[in-house]
Specification:
about 40% strand; five-stranded antiparallel β-sheet
Length: about 110
């Protein structure tokens, strides 16, 4: 069996540890449900199918690692990480006496929780 060079059939470079990439449908049909940002921690050096790589890393959401995964992807389908807005947190305003607050919905809150 003859193996093709690691970069045969695809442009660009292999992802490197520490890099954050967007993994979506272009990387593999298994990621067609919207995709996710992925921080690469390791790239398998062994050859597989031309243009495909095993990556180890973390799914990133709101800037935090939420799930460690091993994924098999088409390197040409990886994209730069997508900046996603953090989910909004309800703000709380303090009343003048400092005894509680009013949330964004206008409801009174207690200072004691």
């Amino acid at each position: 069996m003859t193996w093709l060079p690691r970069d045969a059939g695809r442009p660009g470079l292999d992802p490197v540890p520490g890099q954050v990439v967007f993994v979506g449908r272009a990387a593999s049909v298994q990621f067609a449900g919207g995709g996710f940002n992925f921080r690469v921690i390791s790239v398998d050096p062994k050859p597989t199918y031309p243009g495909w790589r095993w990556l180890w890393g973390y799914v990133i959401e709101d800037g935090r690692a939420i799930d460690r995964r091993q994924i098999f992807v088409q390197v040409a389908g990886l994209a730069p990480a997508v900046a996603r807005r953090a989910s909004p947190r309800p703000r709380q305003r303090r009343d003048a006496a400092g005894t509680g607050g009013i949330d964004d919905a206008g409801s009174r809150t207690s200072a004691n929780g």
